[in-house]
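Standup notes, structure subgroup. Blocker cleared on the NDP input:
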Amino acid sequence: MRRTIAILGSTGSIGRQTLEVVEEHPDLFEVYAITANRSADLLIEQARKFKPEVVVIADESCYEKVKDALADLPIKVWTGADSLCQVVTAGPIDVVVTAMVGFAGLRPTVEAIKAQKALALANKETLVVAGQLIEGLCAEYQVPILPVDSEHSAIFQCLQGESVAKGCFPWLASAKSEDENGEKRPTYLDNPIDKLIITASGGPFRTFTMEQMRDVTAAQALKHPNWDMGAKITIDSASMMNKGFEVIEARWLFGMTTDRIEVAVHPQSIVHSMVQFADGAIKAQLGCPDMKVPIAYALSYPERMPSAINGKLRLEDYANLTFERPDLERFPNLRLAFEALAKGGDRTCVLNAANEVTNEAFRRGQCKFLQMAEVNERTMQAMPFVARPSLDDYFAIDAEARVKAREILANL
Ligand code: NDP
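Run returned:
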């Protein structure tokens, strides 16, 4: 069956790889919409190649350029943040790939859910900020979330045939079907899970002491040992904020409590994550570090598409697969994520907002590597606790936490 997709953030690392997957399977996918913030040239190039119905350039100063460049094609060109919310609701779209980075992905994701579009979710910040709200909306509008993040895709794959109902498909938890005698039966298997084990490469500073980390530069942090990703997530990987966010993401995608989510540092990035069941068995998903694999699975689920472009793992190339415990002292952002998740309410929203500020400040050379976690923690301490934020509250809390984080940064 041909699926019609919209890609929010088509010019980014995930967005570009999504288009590579689509290009390999033109018979299976049609691109309805692509969007970018400011990368006008690449958006134009993508539009000319994939011929979507709509392109959105969020930054209004780039609108004329994109519009003029596509004037000879029957492609609608929209601009502004509201257009991102509008485009995801278009009737023909089956799946929205949320490949935007940061808090900006929240509102279009909410609109896509309300329009009952399946989500292929890469924008983890949406779940970090408002996981509980998104979980409720997905249940209300009966919308599945197919994970794109490689760790969550791995867990999702391990759960196939085991406990699919609780992973990513919240409404199925109560779904029953009737057998021929009119008896209600569960439509899924529900084997008890002991814990989710999220693997982490440990990033470029895995073996560094605090002293060594004190003066590392953004250029060093941007050299991830195994993955080629966008700048923000690469810095988050170096500080292990990304792993903390993935723990939060897993909590909402798979309905697991915090005490049942573990992180294992696995420098080879071959085991993408694992599930341990109550009988002690562990299932793991392995593969090359290649995001096209989880992207393709999210787009074709429940089927798998053959691929000539995806990385194929040769186990004999890896004599050692090693696992170690993460060090929460050297990587305090990971501890902050566990603490924020345990406390609940608006804490993960505050952490995300502070981290967006400090991540950018570090990339611009405005703060040191270890100061990112320090400012994140002090922002969390400074912000009042809101137990049950609404969607509007999240926007206000995000804005307030950014101001607070900038204030703390300025006074370091
Ligand atoms: P990139 O920075 O490479 O791309 C981000 C995309 O979002 C670009 O298309 C960018 O447009 C667009 N964008 C950024 N800000 C805005 C905005 N305010 N309004 C509209 N569009 C915006 O990020 P990645 O692809 O690396 O990451 C995307 C998401 O996927 C993140 O949430 C990340 O955590 C997650 N993820 C990424 C992985 C990876 O391998 N890269 C792995 C797993 C998860 P423009 O080009 O114009 O700036």
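Discussed briefly. The pocket of NDP is lined by residues 9-15, 36-39, 58, 99-101, 104, 122-125, 149, 227, 229-230, 232-233, 291 (CB under 6 Å).
Next: hand off to the docking folks.
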